[in-house]
Write a structure and sequence with these properties.
homodimer; about 325 residues; alpha/beta; Rossmann fold; four-stranded parallel β-sheet; about 45% helix; globular; Ser/Thr_Dehydratase (chains A, B)
Chain lengths: ~325, ~325
């Protein structure tokens, strides 16, 4: 059961731990988008993504004895870092199972945050679940799922409470809120928070082209899967299908999804660099790409979009810089 | 006359206009520096630098009739954008005199913010003052000086009020506060704010090697000049000498200056990219470079450093990315 009460309880537990990220804007973004654009930069959150909120929410809700045995997570990187940092704060072990082809920065950071990283080969069909189940049984670890877990959804939803408050401060009462969407934990959490605190807003999931399972699921009314598991620069938001818990929430609260191209994400990263002085990762720039380049799919004079994370290697960032006019 | 009363008055006038930038940290920075590091990212301020504070402070203090005739500023870029945006907000003309070799992004942005940009050739000794005086007389413009102006110093000082408040929230009462220093408006303003609201902190000006006029002036007890006017990537903080108004304030309140190399600034930009998800310009990364690479010149367990701006071209940013380990 996921609801606003759980989100408010998570906000209480996160107080003094999660950062209240600002709500930013720039006249240059408004000009590109043709409407007022606000950006919620979760790349400035601890560990460089909103995932710290969910990780800390889950860890802080465990009873002390269970937590002391340690936690286990499957993640391509951002959830890994969020859980690793939360575990380090409590001084408990974290074992993270990551695909061997995850960005090097994310693997390195997860280790540097004190977690034990176990790599598996996703391209060759190795089952991360088999690897994880064995470790779980052996050590008594508690699994922290990346999105289909009420405590994690509640943690991500705290970002929505902040958006509601900050929109009120800006005097905005209606508009589309674009959320970078993988399995839907962030999207569902933010949507529930806005339903309660800023009901004039509508949440829109934004996904990479070819990995638009949520968009298609919202259209068909049932959970649809992606044909592929990888092969897109938006590594942070490539998930096989919407969650069992997150999908009904999105179905009830979210407007149609938006699918953005890799090139649009790279261009949005360039804009975030030049106009907001922010480092966005490709998947983290998906919602901004939607706001800037899919204006015809958006209603209203105002759009708020999340930058969900900024954990990007220099190599990929160079491709974003190359989209700018002043690039040599 | 510059004092804390003027800074508090500027803070009142800036309310709802200037952004309250967050105070950030990362365990990775602490590890490099060997002490706790906090970062005040003024690159997230409107126009990408703290200069908006001073520009808005000056414009908001003018009487309506004077302001309506328009304002004039000399600037290599950041002060230009700060004044241009403040003028645009009031709907009054801004004429900005910029060196022809200023970063293209800064010239373009100043124009895009609605200002009239007049370029002069600093390498060949063309006098910007001569150009400016003629325009001023002809059109009745009010000159907004970049640093040696009490209203501008007061505006920059509002950043110091925020640092004092945020340090208190973090439970820190003592430490060095490193400020990226050109003519000293930012440094003097922050120092006066901390003297009043957080007297356990000591402000340290950080300058580029070869342009350490403030550092040498603090040592000798009189205003010293730099041998060169340009030729360093830290374009934002290259000034000929400390200001007549700013120097006595710095002399009274600031600890010894720190001089950082171009390479250290580029490396600090890389760290800000990787660990803070922030875009810093070379001069804006000077204080962070001091915190990370000049630890032996810093006292205490905690250092707070400003990132004063983020207006950097993609070309220069690539040089910062090249300092990172994962660069190919």
């Amino acid at each position: 059961m996921s609801d606003i009460t759980m989100i408010r309880a998570a906000a209480d537990r996160l107080k003094g731990h999660a950062r209240r990220t600002p709500l930013l804007s720039s006249p240059f973004l408004d000009e590109i988008a043709g409407r007022r654009v606000f950006v919620k930069p979760e790349c400035l959150q601890h560990t460089g993504s909103f995932k710290y909120r969910g990780g800390r929410s889950a860890l802080s809700a465990l009873d002390g004895e269970t937590r002391a045995k340690g936690v286990l997570a499957y993640s391509s990187g951002n959830h890994a870092q969020g859980v690793a940092k939360a575990a380090a704060e409590y001084g408990v072990p974290a074992v993270i199972i990551m695909p061997a082809d995850a960005p090097k920065l994310k693997i390195d950071n997860t280790r540097a945050l004190g977690a034990e990283v176990v790599l598996y080969d996703r391209e060759n069909g190795e089952s991360r679940e088999a690897v994880g189940e064995a470790l779980k049984a052996e050590r008594g670890l508690t699994l922290v799922k990346p999105f289909d877990e009420p405590l994690v959804i509640a943690g991500q939803g705290t970002c929505g409470l902040e958006i509601a408050e900050q929109a009120r401060e800006e005097g905005i009462e209606t508009g589309d809120v674009l959320v970078c969407c993988g399995g839907g934990g962030f999207t569902a959490g933010v949507a529930m928070a806005l339903e309660a605190d800023a009901p004039g807003f509508r949440v829109r999931p934004v996904e990479p082209e070819g990995f638009d399972d949520v968009t298609r699921s919202l259209e068909s009314g049932q959970r649809e899967s992606n044909a592929r598991a990888s092969g897109n620069i938006c590594d942070a938001i490539l998930t096989p299908a919407p969650g069992e818990i997150t999908f009904p929430i999105m179905q009830r609260l979210c407007g149609p999804g938006i699918a953005v191209s890799e090139d649009e994400c790279l261009r949005a990263m360039g804009v975030a660099f030049q106009r907001l002085k922010l480092v966005a990762e490709p998947g983290g720039a998906a919602a901004l790409a939607g706001a800037l380049y899919h204006g015809d799919e958006i209603e209203g004079d105002t759009v708020i979009c999340t930058i969900s994370g900024g954990n990007v290697d220099a190599q990929v960032f160079r491709r974003a810089l190359a989209t700018l006019d002043d690039a040599p």
